[in-house]
Amino acid sequence: MINEDRIWQRLQSLSTIGHTEAGGIIRLSFTKEEQQAKDLVATYMKEAGLSVRIDEAGNLIGRKEGKNANAPVVMVGSHLDSVYNGGNFDGPLGVIAAVEALQAMKEQNIETEHPIEVIAFTDEEGARFSFGMIGSRGIAGTLTAEDLHYQDKDGITIAEAMASAGLNPDEVSKAARKPGDVKAYVELHIEQGRVLEQRNLPVGIVTGIAGPLWLKLIIEGEAGHAGTTPMNLRHDALTAAAKMMLTIETEAAKTGTTVGTVGQLQVFPGGINVIPNRVEFTLDLRDIDEKVRDGVEERILQQAREICQIQGVNLNVELLQRVPPVPCSELVQSAAKAAFEELGYEIFTLPSGAGHDGMQMKDLCPIGMLFVRSKNGISHNPEEWSSKEDCGHGAIALYKTIVNLAIQKN
Ligand code: HGY
Ligand code: MN
Ligand code: MN
């Protein structure tokens, strides 16, 4: 049904773009590496007989017409941008498998009622601007001009980066689709965890996506001489931050389902013999249950303020993004279950700890996801890997799910 070798070869070609000496991938949004990846995938889309365009938010879109041009589109896709030093499968597998599914339909002359669009969303990861899911917010119509002010490490805003990539940030709202335009959105993605591996299954059906809360905590103390300032007279921003990080670890672990990560840390002025007067660090807090997640947030911030009181330092908290957890729709889950049955795959369902573009699409259309087993559950790491066979199983399951969704007359 699908060509596993072609998928594998295309994944390998894609993995050379943004490849670093450290062995990982750096393909940040609106950079030449992301553009090169889009250009390569655009050639694959054309080979699959799709009409190809870039929308106003920078998403690469390949479209296959359906028998009924007015029928709502079935969307399928993922992303081509990466985290810093990421792996080869997070995002690209979903895009390449989606193109393969449509190419297989073309080669087998399969016509569907609904048109189908493959989307390579721009900036799913948020690595460059610590914001993220820019492309899917654009399609969902929730991306605003204010969002485009987020800056990267060099102070370049999203708007400036879009302009340098040939887009007009003032027109970003034109990428929006209306509810009713889209029948469903389905994405194939690597699991990035160990559940499928522990069950010895190649693929699974996702029940829901945990919601990421991203905060930046800014602690301001007092710079001082490392040699002349007694310990009891210090207002050390870094030791205060360190105690807060340990609180994050303790409070997140308590619920058994929440995960908390400090991924970025900046210390000022950064001298070996200067007591730090300013520290900035990020918190990525997630749970499949929004109330549980926000309860952990509350307890962390409460203790952070107590730490500030004791150490005589100041805390400011900046909200970067607060994305609610999203359940996967019955419509897509049942189309996937029917596909698994047709293929003789064990029907196994699991939640996603990682965030995905489907979260932004939840008010636009029913969403759903399929997972492919990850070796040792490793991801966001050059060691990220899924076998050719598992990628093939994932692609066939995606193909069947798409056909199940696009062939029905409603
Ligand atoms: O951060 C995430 O969960 C996803 O990889 N963007
Ligand atoms: Mn991803
Ligand atoms: Mn990722």
Task: Characterize the overall form.
Answer: elongated
Classified in CATH, the superfamily of the largest domain is Zn peptidases
The CATH architecture of the largest domain comes to 3-Layer(aba) Sandwich
- The H-and-E topology, N to C, reads as HHEEEHEHHEHEEEHEEEEHEEHEEH
**Residue ranges: pLDDT <50 for 5 or more in a row?**
none
Bound small molecules, by name, code or SMILES, are: (2S)-amino(hydroxy)ethanoic acid, manganese (II) ion
Number of domains: 2
**Portion in helices:** 25-40%
Please report the number of helical segments: 10
The counted number of beta strands is: 16
Helix-and-strand structural type: alpha+beta
Biggest pleated sheet: 9 strands, mixed
Distance between the termini: 25 Å
Average pLDDT number: 96
Strand content: 15-25%
Question: What fold name stands as the CATH topology of the largest domain?
Answer: Aminopeptidase
Identify the CATH class of the largest domain.
Alpha Beta
How would you describe what is shown here?
It is a single chain. Helices cover 33% and strands 22% of the residues. It is α+β, with helices and mostly antiparallel strands. It has two domains: 4-209 and 325-406, 3-Layer(aba) Sandwich (Aminopeptidase), CATH 3.40.630; 211-322, Alpha-Beta Plaits, CATH 3.30.70. The strands form three sheets. Strands 1, 2, 3, 4, 5, 6, 14, 15 and 16 form a nine-stranded mixed sheet that branches. Strands 7, 9, 10, 12 and 13 form a five-stranded antiparallel sheet that branches. The site of one manganese (II) ion (MN) has 5 residues, from loops.
